[in-house]
Amino acid sequence: MNINFEIIPKYIKSEYFIINLIIDDLLKNKNLLYTFDELNIPELKGSHFLFLERFIKKGFSYSFKEEAGVFMPIESFSLKDNHIEFNLTKIFKEAILEQNSLRVLDLKYILKFEESFSKYFYYNFVINTENEKNIVIPLEELKKILGLKEYERFYDFELNILKKLKKEIDLKTNYLLEYNKIKSGEFKNNKVIAIEFFINTKRSKAKLEETNELMSILATHIKDFKMCYDLLYNSLNYIDFKELKSSIQYILKNHNKESSIEDELKIFIENKSKLSQYEKIDSFYASCLNPLKFQNFLYKKLTQMVNLEVLNTNVSSTKFLKVLYFAKEGEQLFFEDGPITIAIKYSKKAESFFEIYKKI
Question: How far apart are CA 150 and CA 307, in angstroms?
Answer without folding.
Answer: 71
